[in-house]
Prior knowledge:
This protein is of the alpha+beta class. The protein has helices at residues 14-22, 27-34, 41-47, 53-65, 87-90, 93-109, and strands at 4-6, 9-11, 39-40, 69-74, 80-85. It is globular and about 50 Å long.
Amino acid sequence: MPEFLSDNKKYYTPVEYVFAKIGGTYKMPILWRVKDKSWRYSELKKNISNISDRMLSKNLKELCSDGFLKKTIIPEVPVKVEYSMTEKGKNTIPIISFLRDYGFSLMKEDGIIEDKKKDSQKRV
């Protein structure tokens, strides 16, 4: 495949492009949690281990601007903000699920875990 440009960044493969959009330490865990229900910022912050406010804000902003998540502002006092999955975001879940299962398989093979059932279903 020939190289291509998107947002002034050069990509060499479609896989590289996908990982630029949903890869990294926190994007897939965020998408995994938001797949079933809307989440508030503070709920995500409490539920995702070791994520800083800066990283959560950055990743949520990117996922929203790329169309994977929708940000809804609820005019209450104080203002309530919720993040929910878009159709584009829903399309990532089978991919994340496959990568998650493959990760568990590799971890089991490498002796890191005994059985994937021992790990939380919320983790990616």
